[in-house]
Each structure stands twice: as structure tokens, then as C-alpha cells.
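ok so for the tutorial part 2 we go from a plain amino acid sequence to predicted C-alpha cells. step 1 is just haveing the sequence, like this:
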Amino acid sequence: MLTDFDPSRAGKTFYDLSPITGALDGLSADYVCCINNGTGPSVLLCGGIHGDEYEAQIVLRRLAERLEPADVTGRVIIMPSINFPASQKGKRLSPFDGQNMNRFFPGKAEGTPTERLCAFMTGTLFPAVDLLIDVHAGGSDVSVVPMVFGFTTPKSVVDDAGLKRLMEAWGYRFVQHVDGIDETACGAAKLADLASIEVEGGGGRMKSAELTIMEDGLLRALAAYGAIKPKLEPVPFSGVHFTAGPEGQYLAPEAGLVEHLVSLGDEVTAGQRVALLHPAAGERSAPKVIASPMPGYVLRQTEHAFVSPKQLIGNIGTPLEG
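step 2 — the prediction. this is what the C-alpha cells look like for a chain of 322 residues:
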């Protein structure tokens, strides 16, 4: 573990994460950055839980480099790539243990490299902050519309009203309401009575516009929380609160080649054509029509042209009433 980590140290400090995992073949050292200035709120920003979700890692590395103590009005801890064993190998999961990090929280201090990194986050970083912001993307498999969702408890410093205000401060169009999973970072935070917000957006090829959306959203939220001085004008919320479950997924009925007929964020009706599934072999050329299973908004779409039977093509979220 990091024996010299001191979250209360004034100024800006970078800490090497490699003592947590020990030496791993072919990896460069990565870090966690802690910035302290003032008595304002405290927040942990984490990226790269899934190693192939690179948008979050790029944006958080930018923020760790660019934010200075004079910009901060409390405590900001930034870990751009917690799963650096996976990200540096171009993998979603660590090749050193094959574990899905977002199903192994709170971790084990004497476990696998993945479990040790989880344990450092929950055991050392969680107690140093009042809010977790866990930044994700679609990875190599899917593209995701920019959205946020969050969790709090009656014992959390950030209450329900404060959490709703923060999520709407992102300036995103979509705020999701979802049940948590205990073994995820946000699930572990909830069990520790730490409020959390998960950020989604991007995936597939890296797009400059999506990086800007992610960075701007974080800067607005951090300012609204009071952890940094404002750098952007606030954006009044005019979006949608929604839910999304398995009933909104549309899957491939057979192997084939996907042609999307709608875009991320589009509003669709039940039964509307959302994709075509072209045959990958044989004499037939006519595609099968894939229809939306329900009305709502397109939240995710596969980045793969070829899909296997029952593989996700996309999913729909349903607006909340009122």
C-alpha cells in the first residue's frame, strides 16, 4: 500500500500507485493526484475502472495536470486510471488476473492486483472525501449517450436534494435512475455512506466532441459542488430523468451485420425501426428489421458491425413521469 499517502497535505501531490500492485511486467507507473486548498467540499474523481474506457482517463489526466491549488476550494483527488494494468495493455480487464474491477469492490488488501487497487480506493480514498465521481465510457463495445446517475444514503454528506442538484449541474440531457450493484465502485460507496455519481458517455472511436462534453460536465459539477472555482458558465437543466432496464434492450435474434437507423439520444416510439440486421452469409440479402421494444430515448448502441445471437444492439430509456 501507499505508506506515504496523506490526503490532508497542502498543495498538489502525485502519488505512485505501483506499490499497491507490486511490479507488473511491461507497465509504467501511474498515479493518484491530491490537491488541497481551503476548507470546502472534498471529492474523488476516478477513471479507468474498465481499462478500455479511455475518454475518462484522458479527461481526468488533463484535469490532474491543469488544476492547481489556486483553482481548488477544498480537496480534489484524481485517479485517472485506477485499472492501469488493463488500460496500458489495451484491455477492458486486467490481463494479470482477468477480473472485472467493477464487480470486485470493496476489494482485498492482500488479494489480486485488481482487488488491491479496489481496496486502496475504498479503504484509503473513500474516507478522505464526501463525494465519489466515477467516470466511465462505452469502451470498445458500445457507444453511450452522455448521462449521469447517482446514489446517496441518509448518512451521506450529500443528501438527495444535493445529489439531484449536482447531477443536473452537469449540463447533460439525461439523468438516469437505477438500482445500484454492491460490488461496483458506486455500490461500495453507498455501503460506506459515501454519496456517488457515475458519469457515462462516449465509446468506440475517440471523438474530440465527446471529450469536451465530458470535461465541461465535470468542471461544471465540481464548481456547483464548491470544490473548485467556476471555469464555465452554468447550464440550466432542460433534460430528462429516466429509467432503463432489460425490457428496453434490443438484441440480435441471430448472427448478422448491424445497420443503425437511429442515433444516440433520438426519441423513438414502440415498434419503430431502429436497426437492420443484414445476413453475414448465404444467398439472401434482405435484412431483418429490429424494432424498438418500447417508447423512449436511445441510450446505447453497439460499436460492432458483426453481432452474435442475443448480443446487444442497443437499449432504450423511459422518461419518468412528473
